Structures are given as C-alpha cells and as structure tokens.
Amino acid sequence: MNIFDILGPVMVGPSSSHTAGAVRIGLMGRKLLGCMPLKARICMHGSFAATGVGHGTDKAIVAGLLGMEPDDVRIPESFKMAGEKGLEFTFEETTLKGAHPNSVQMVLEDGQHRKLTVQASSLGGGRIMLNKINDVEVNCTCENPTLIIHNMDQPGYVAEVASMLFQKSVNVANMSLHRKKRGGYAVMIIETDQKIPKESIEWLEQKEGILKVTYIDIGGNR
Fold first, then answer.
1. CB neighbours of 77 closer than 8 A, spacing ≥ 6?
2. In this entry, which stretches build a coiled coil (predicted)?
3. Binning pLDDT at 50, 70 and 90, where does residue 78 land?
4. What's the CA angle centered on 180, arms 150 and 21, to 5 degrees?
5. Which candidate, 151, 143, 134, places its Cα nearest to that of 188?
6. Does residue 118 carry a pLDDT above 60?
7. What is the CB neighbour count within 10 angstroms for residue 96?
8. Tens digit of pLDDT for each residue in 158-202?
C-alpha cells in the first residue's frame, strides 16, 4: 500500500473527498476548457449537495477553476478572488443518474463563446474520476499523463495517434474510444507511461478533423 493511501493528500480543508478532490475537479474543468472560465454553473449531486457547503466543497471547486492546487492556502478566499478575476459562478443541486455520491456537473464558458460541460466525481483520498465531457462518457482518472482528443468519428485517427506515440517511444498504458453516434463527435482517451512531447501535441492540433487536444499531466506541468 502506498503511504499516500494511508495519510491522504497534502491539502487545505477538512476532507480529501469534499475538499482536495473538489479542487482537482475544478482544476480539471479549467484544463479541459483551456483557460479560466468566465462563467460557471456548478451542479452538485448526492453527498456534495447535502454536505458540500459545510466541507468547503463549493469554495474548493471555484478554487480549482481559478487554477489552485489542493494545498493552496488561498482556497477559503476563492469566492472573493473569483470576483476579482471576473469569474461568475452559480451553484445548484441536481440528481445525476447512476453517478457517484460525490459528483458534480460543471457548465463552463469562456470569453470566446466556447462552452464545455464536464461531469466528474471525487473517489476519496483526493483522487477523482472524469466521467463525462459534453455528455460523452469517458471515465478516466488522468493519474498518468493523459491525452484527450476530440475528433470527427472517421477512420484513420486512432492509427495516426498510435503511430505518433510509437515514433516518440511513448508507451500506451490505457486507451479508450467514445462517441455519441456513428460518424459524429468522438473522444479518444489515452493514458501513457511517459510524458508526451509538446511538439507532438502541437502536431495533433493541426491535423484536419481533430477538433481539440487536451494534455493533462498531474505530476508535471498543467
């Protein structure tokens, strides 16, 4: 057993699930959007809805959206800081079918008319699961370096990405493909053993038919 599993994460707040995990969910949403959102509608489910305010879950999620880590001492001041930085946010309770008790759905908007819906859950010990992106189920923890590719559902994209990773000597730890319908919008989730070079990500972003590329490396640069 890892000592992290016994002691939990280094964090500010009373609960690894309701605070540390919530910060990471907010931070994940920011990363997927590509910037700090200007508007956020945050829908709390289950235990998050019932006891989240008492545990500081609301402040933690906003802190993550602002780019804070779970050990940031400014987390209790996140609402004030959001006002200073121009982040408008609202909270509401919701019921998410089949979701983990510690779950949240965030509808995020930036200043470029981009809108993103993210559903995620806090699993305990500061660990999180990304459940949905724009209603497409993904279910990944992003604990390894993770590449999230949004592309048109057409032949060839998986082969091109796999070939690029092979050329860069990057080993695939887990890979999953998700789509809403045949020939429509698809999401490719690739977790790797090694970091993915910046130039490879930039190369993917220029490929026709690839709509968006997000690289998440929790152990390194965000």
1. none
2. none
3. very high
4. 65
5. 151
6. yes
7. 18
8. 999 999 999 999 999 999 998 878 888 888 999 999 999 999 999
- Contact between residue 41 and residue 116 where contact means Cβ atoms under 8 Å apart: no
Enter the pTM of the model. Answer: 0.77
Q: Which amino acid is at 90?
A: T
Count of C-beta atoms within a 10 Å radius of residue 132? 18
Q: Does 58 score more than 50 pLDDT?
A: yes
Q: Evaluate whether 62 touches 108 at the Cβ level (below 8 Å).
A: no
Query: For the sheet containing 210-216, what is the strand order?
Result: 172-179, 185-192, 146-152, 210-216
| Side-chain half-sphere CA neighbours of 161 within 13 A | 28
Domains and CATH numbers, the chain: 3-133 (3.30.1330.90), 146-216 (3.30.70.260)
Each residue of 34-70: b (16+ CB within 10 Å) or e?
eebbbebbbbbbbbbbeebeebbbbbbbbbbbbebbb
pLDDT at position 54 is: 82
CB atoms within 10 A of CB 14: 11
Pairwise CA distance, residues 56 & 78, whole Å: 10
For the chain, where are the E strands, in sequence order? 39-45, 88-94, 102-109, 115-124, 127-133, 136-140, 146-152, 172-179, 185-192, 210-216
Dist CA 16 CA 21 (whole Å): 6
| pLDDT value, residue 1 | 40
